[in-house]
Amino acid sequence: MRVLIKQAKIIQAASPLHNQVMDILMEDNTIVSIAKKIDEAGAEKIISEKELIFSPGWVDLMADYAEPGYEYKEGIKNGLTVAAKGGFTDVVIVPNTQPSISNKAAVQFALQQAQGAPAKLHVLGSISNNIEGKDLAEMLDMHEQGAVGFTDGWKPLQNAALMLKALEYVKAFKGILVQIPMDSTIASNGLMHEGVHSTQLGMAGIPTIAETILLQRDIDLLRYTHSRLHISGVSCAASIEIIKQAKAEGIAITCDTTPYHLLFTDSALTSYNSLYKVMPPLRSEEDRQALIAALKDGTIDCIASHHRPQDWDAKQKEFEYASYGMAVQEYSFAALYSKFVKELSIERWMDLFANNARCIFNLPYQIIQEGASGNFSVVSLQHPSTLQIEIGQSKSNNMPFDTWPCNAKVITTFISKN
């Protein structure tokens, strides 16, 4: 299909067309022509919206599509449909399935399930075999099968000796580990951030030290091994300072945070609403402001949805027994941009959503120019609408943005067939 995008601003610093407003003619996900004005004759579809942005395809990190084992929560094909609706052309999934993604056959299964979907799937294999934290998984085999990195996902690796061995092992093929910084021995009994609200509610708290202890340990191991590490789901000001110092030292560390840690605090839990039960937990307003500052100064490299769909039964129960997570992939950009429209430049938003993750995980990166065939995202920054859960694509409804007004709207995505 020949699609003509009218008067879109191209945002890609590496492109000679960066910051220029152009007409873009697409055919079969290839840029056929870019010009100030292109004749509409012959175009089968015309996209004309206010303040259109054309950028490299967005990448989402740490999505949980729960297949195999828990397909009733999401599933790979449906999950990738959700991702495309949210503007993502590429999705990096966690290995916390049943059985876990701990060998090359499991990687191959996931990639096969994604064939023909409206977004590209990329797999994180597990660090430890069966995510048990005891022995290393078949990381080299998974890497050769297409795994882009390794993590134990929602069960952060606690064993320091195994983490050391894993960091050393992936150096052989320039691999990267991903870790959610949470010491389970400190956090095990906690339900929310330890602070004024946890005291008032009488709920066991998770102190920020549960995050910073594991983070500092892993940075020490990283410094020793000279390997690569990505920290996912940073939630507190203390962690930001530790990561900032490590980066200044030249250590190969990158990090991300989630949309909900930028938008909510532990005060959202005062009604015992399990929708806001996430891990790492929602922190204080001081922590939230530190995360926003880290978006601006570049300490945070990416936004990761931590898209974790849960069925109705998993959330509609006593808070103590409710499952963790939010299903926010479809709404991440719209919700964030609408709340922080004046805080960051559009170039910075595209770094957070598209460019940096491609560099970190060595994903294909295509320069926007005539003849280019690749993954691209198109969004309007002036399209007032309301986010509605009832028209969402996810199988699960644990989404906190229902009825939120927003300015940005994803218009379409293009993905290459290669």
Number of helices: 13
Looking at the chains present, what oligomeric state does this protein adopt? single chain
Q: State the end-to-end distance.
A: 17 Å
CATH fold-level name of the largest domain: TIM Barrel
* Helix proportion range: 25-40%
Structural class: alpha/beta
Biggest sheet details: 7 strands, mixed
Molecular shape: globular
* Uncertain residue ranges: none
CATH architecture of the largest domain: Alpha-Beta Barrel
Q: Mean of residue pLDDT?
A: 95
The H-level CATH homologous superfamily of the largest domain, spelled out, is Metal-dependent hydrolases
Write a concise keyword list for the protein shown above.
418 residues; alpha/beta; Urease, subunit C, domain 1; seven-stranded mixed beta sheet; 13 helices; 29% helix
Task: Note down, in words, how this protein is organized.
This protein has about 425 residues and is an alpha/beta fold. It folds into two domains: about 1-55 and about 370-415, Urease, subunit C, domain 1 (Roll), CATH 2.30.40.10; about 60-360, Metal-dependent hydrolases (TIM Barrel, Alpha-Beta Barrel). About 30% of the residues lie in helices and about 20% in strands. It has 13 helices and 19 strands. The protein has helices at about 75-85, 105-115, 140-145, 160-170, 185, 195-200, 210-225, 235-250, 260-265, 285-295, 310-315, 330-340, 345-360, and strands at about 1-10, 20-25, 30-35, 45, 50-55, 60-65, 90-95, 120-125, 150, 175-180, 190-195, 205, 230, 255, 300-305, 375-380, 385, 405, 410-415.
